[in-house]
Amino acid sequence: MRAPTLALLSVVLAPGLLAGCFGPPPGEGEGEGEGEGEGEGEGEGEGESLPDEGVKICPAAPAPADDTSLQGTPFATMVVSFPADVVLCNAWREGGTRDNEVLHKVRIRIPAQARTSLMRSHLAAAELDGVFIERGPFRGQRHAVSSCAGNAEVTDFRVEGVDQQFLTATVRHGFGDVGVLEEQYSVFQGAAGVVVPDRNTGVSFVWLPPGGEGAVLEPCDVLPAEAEPFDALEVFVGEATTGEKRVVFRSFRTFDTFAGSYPVAFTGAAVVDPAAAFAAVGSVGTGFRA
Known about the structure:
36% strand; 5-stranded mixed beta sheet; elongated; mainly beta; 4% helix; 9-stranded antiparallel beta sheet
């Protein structure tokens, strides 16, 4: 059994508390939501879905015209495909501030899309239709968006190298004040084909929230059936303007994740007056496992 984890919220916050995924956690009793208290809701409860979640809205578009951007290169006939739905989360970064991690917290669902080749004109016509972006558990933090043909912008397109050539391209899909999703290609000569998104074939996504730097997205962690939870303890310290303090201890059981959210099973809490030799002001739950 792992030693209990201690998170001093007046100083530092355990990474999973800022997790990027907001779907319902697995198992019963794990209703303690990620991003708790972050952002203003619009009256909807957690777990509610927008009516148009995952619905594609882009009209049928003609096939993009070919160009000569890859003429004479090994990438001219390379096939690009986006064959399956994906769910992506921000990857956790070490040493970031709480506010910065909250800013980059995101879970993005992208259904399978049409893709053709690596030609610049084809990438510029690439769509991201029926995308669902979740930046928190409330309705105002969840967005159904689409980037239709002609909306994307190719901001970088290069073929470099002599004996071993490689292609670099960035396709920016802007979603207004929600943010920007970049489709980044880094493909080496000799690849059998390109699958989106798949870092093994040279394609990844980067999320750029308004006012923030890019955060690399990875497949959201899925807990294996045999995963064992461990005990954790949070400590909140609050101080009134009069100088009076209270300490809140909250215990729960959880799991490690490195991209996305961890589930939380609340087990107990106590409010303590530090001036009274740690006499509990009040407590709830089943007690602490620490």
